[in-house]
Amino acid sequence: MHAAVVRSLDTAPKYEIVDTPIPSEKNEVLIDVIAAGLHPRVRSQANGSHYTSSDQLPLVPGIDGVGRMANGQFIYFVAPDSSIGTFAEKAVIDTRRSVALPDDVDPIRIAAAMNPAMSSWVAIRRRIDFQQGQKVLILGATGNSGQMAVQIAKLLGASQVIGAGRDENRLNGLKDLGADVTVSLAGDPEEAADRLGEIASEVDVVIDYLWGKPAELAMLPLLKNRSERSRALSWIQIGSIAGPTAAVPSVALRSANFCLLGSGQGSVSTSGYVAELPSLIDVIAAGKLEVNSISLPLSKVEEVWNDAVYAGQRVVFIPTK
How far apart are CA 127 and CA 235, in angstroms? Predict the structure, then answer.
């Protein structure tokens, strides 16, 4: 079969012929891959930077996708933790990590949206006791996952959603996705943090895709400007686009009701993720989330991998094209 293959963590995957994988466990089956998304999580898998990476090579990247079972049933599936991922014509899946899709669903839409939507969906529904009417700040709202988070926070009942990011063009489009307020993080980092602290001080939840210096600088301004510091603020760390580490001021943890936690593989069980799949699929299939995607043949993987032309779009590879 054809697949995208990573043979060096420093180079893009190449389109090659590889052996078709063979199911070896009780719940495993071989399926045809219909569509698989190129997510930031896939890139970090392919370059070895994700915290779950084993650096085992060669590697077929891809962490999820839409597939077709032997009986013709279309499914969304999350790939097993192995070196044989979803950027291939066929994949071995664990049926316990899959969900049947409606007959009329758009596989491109599902493959494009599930991963970026899942991060905030699971964070809000599984990591905190989110209440209708709470206010949410999205740090890194101009990325694909951040734009999904704006929509999902509103969909799940947030009374106010504040989107913060550096890309002015995308920031201007966030209100069309449901953001009530936007905050630019461009310019001097400390000034941006102070600006954020003034505007977003009363939020109940922060969904953070940035981490690094932006998070580090924003914590105290947000907390110091709160009208009631004893009111809980849950800061959910999801991504680290701006850096893998941030110095957390000790005073932030002592002077306010400040809860810092993460959401991702490990902090949420596989069964917890799978339990959320049907409801999120229903939301995406019903057209309640705007999805900006483009589908391309998997044979173009090497040339597309680092092409800035597709920035801002979720690339979905079609293995059979």
Answer: 10
